[in-house]
Amino acid sequence: MVHLPSVVKEKARAIKLVVFDVDGVLTDGTLTYSASGEEVKHFNVKDGVGIKLLAEYDVVTAIISAKDSAPLQKRATDLGIGHFFPGCKDKWSQLSALLDELWFNPEEVCYVGDDVIDLKVMKRVGLSVAPKDAFWLVRDHADLITEAKGGKGVAREVADIILGSRMPLDEAYIKAMLPEFEQQKNEN
């Protein structure tokens, strides 16, 4: 893991909720269609481990995406992400409602986004993160830019940063080594 500035570590330590955009964050942003017109998305399995590991340490996860698709719904279900908001055009409004429901403050939120639709949220949360290949304006407003590009382990890197701000990572990964870890769904 990359050496983090102390201010980022402090922000990461306070996080109770991590919200992910999808296209360009959990995927590389490529849109692929089958011959019958079905959308195909490619997700990184390492991201799934990171998301599930966050839940193991009581960090709630959510997805707020401007788009909706069957592959996205399947991935959210497979990861047990209970706070799933596809087809959302006003991400800040949706996040505000979720914060009210969970009784969290914006400072307790890490938001991971890659394009201009994410800026309104990123400017208002405790920790804003952009993938290495995010749109330049988003990178300029992010507290942290990941080493990973979109779809190439961004969520795993974010999980490592948050968990690593609280404990040694080898300690955090003990839970991921248990046989029952892969059978569990994210219960947030």
Automatic annotation (TrEMBL):
Gene3D superfamilies: HAD superfamily/HAD-like. Keywords: Hydrolase, Lipopolysaccharide biosynthesis, Magnesium, Metal-binding. It catalyses: 3-deoxy-alpha-D-manno-2-octulosonate-8-phosphate + H2O = 3-deoxy-alpha-D-manno-oct-2-ulosonate + phosphate. It comes from Bacterioplanoides pacificum. It comes from the Bacteria. Homotetramer. Catalyzes the hydrolysis of 3-deoxy-D-manno-octulosonate 8-phosphate (KDO 8-P) to 3-deoxy-D-manno-octulosonate (KDO) and inorganic phosphate. This is 3-deoxy-D-manno-octulosonate 8-phosphate phosphatase KdsC. Its cofactor is Mg(2+). The keyword Magnesium applies. It is an enzyme of class 3 (hydrolase). Its EC number is 3.1.3.45. InterPro entries: CMP-NeuNAc_synthase, HAD-like_sf, HAD_sf, KdsC_fam. It holds the Pfam family Hydrolase_3. Belongs to the KdsC family.
